[in-house]
Every structure is written in structure tokens, then in C-alpha cells.
Amino acid sequence: MHSTFFLARHFGSVVLLLASLSCLGFATAQDKKLESVSVSETPITQGLKICTCGHSFYYFMPPILAEMAKVGEIKGHEQVGQSYIGGSRIIQHWFDIYDVTFKLRPAKVDHNAITFEQLKKLHEPYFAGLDEHVRELNKKIGKEGVFIVPVGHAVNALRDKVIAGQSPGITMQEDLFADPLGHVKGHVMALNAYCHYAVIYCKNPVGLPVPSILKTAQLGDQEEKLNTLLQELAWEAVTQHPLSGVKAEAKP
User: Fold this and answer.
1) What is the pTM of this model?
2) Do β-strands 49-54 and 78-84 pair in parallel, antiparallel, or remain unpaired?
3) For the chain, first and last CA: distance in Å?
4) Where do the domains of the chain lie?
5) How does pLDDT run across 40-57, given as a tens digit for each residue?
6) Rg (CA), the chain
7) Which residue among 147, 163, 241, 243 sits deepest, i.e. has the most Cβ atoms within 10 Å of its Cβ?
């Protein structure tokens, strides 16, 4: 359902996030050359300056991330720029159909019909291509300067939990989506932001309070449980991805 995003990170610098296969986000160092960034086991406590570019599947993430950074006691987090164009052609992997020539708006999509194994198979070509592209980019610049925020992996994992009846307050996959195109509701918006929080700050989001966007889902006594699940899924996806720049051993 969801694309995976490029992340260029440099400690104490500007971070540029793009939801795109064709664009590369480079970190701009302040008063010094960009140094090599390796896999981190230590959380970043100083807030970074963030610039984001994307479309309607991404515009919601920055303010949620800012809220998470604030409650996570990360001082100095700042959104310094953003550019969004609705319906822009970044990559057409927003559907339950992997078809890069798909241009028409579907009249109806049965989000409940697809299985987890089918989701994995449909996304494999995209995930593999993205990983290869990021490795090539890092090879060209001679350092680990481009990272992946594995939102797509986390969303697939959430859908697997829903299918198995293990997602508090969510009974069907269609409950996660607002329309046939795959625009998401608050649950997935929060999950998206948790993934970015984990990669940008190398910090486990488990334990953060329920974000405002998740409260819009009106989950009642299931709210806290689902919030914890989303945090765990985000951390698992990030620490298991070899190009996220974050190790599972990172201290919470």
C-alpha cells in the first residue's frame, strides 16, 4: 500500500525527506563537509531541521512527527520547508495492484480480499528496486548518506495483524483506508510518523503517548493498545531493514 521513503540524515544538519524513486535527498552540512554516517546504536537527542516533499500520501506526516519529537523530549526539531503537489506522479505503488502503468482511478478496491502473502509478493519488486537504488546512491557518494524509512513494510505488517485478528480496535483492512486509492486514516498516519521518528532519531518510539491523529479514530479503551502495537511494528520494521541506519540494539 504505502511507499517507502528516502531519508538523507546528517547529525546536526538539515534532513530532506522525499516520497520518490526519482529524487535523492541529500543532507546539507553546516559549516563542514558531510561526514560518513554509519548504523547507529545511540539515539539522537538534538532536534534536526526537516524539509519534506511529497503528495497526499505524505503531507500529514511532518506535524505528527513534530508532536512525537516534542513529547519524546527532542529539543530543536524544526520543519523548515515543505512542498506538496496533490496527485503528483512520484511512483504508482499506492494500490493493492503492482502495475506502474496504472493510471485510472479505480471505482472500487476490496482491501479486505488480499492476503499478507499476496501483499508481500506484490511489494517485493518495488522494495527490492528501492533497496538497490539506495545502495547504488550510497556507493556513488562514497558513504552512507541515504537511508530508507520502511513505512511500506510496517503497513504490511499492520495489515497482517488485522487479518489475524490481532490489531486492537481494527477488525478489517478496509478500516485503515479512506478511499479506493489507498489514502489512509489516522492509524496508518501514526504508524508512518513512528517509522520516521525511529529512523531520524534512532530512537524506539515505544512508550510515547497516543498522538492526536490516532485519537480521531475513536477507539475507546483499545486506543492505548493499538498505539503500542503501532510503535512496536514501526520499531521492528526499522530495525530489521538493513538500510534504515538503525540497529535493534539502539537504546530506548
Assistant:
1) 0.80
2) parallel
3) 29
4) 5-240
5) 668 888 898 888 877 777
6) 17
7) 147
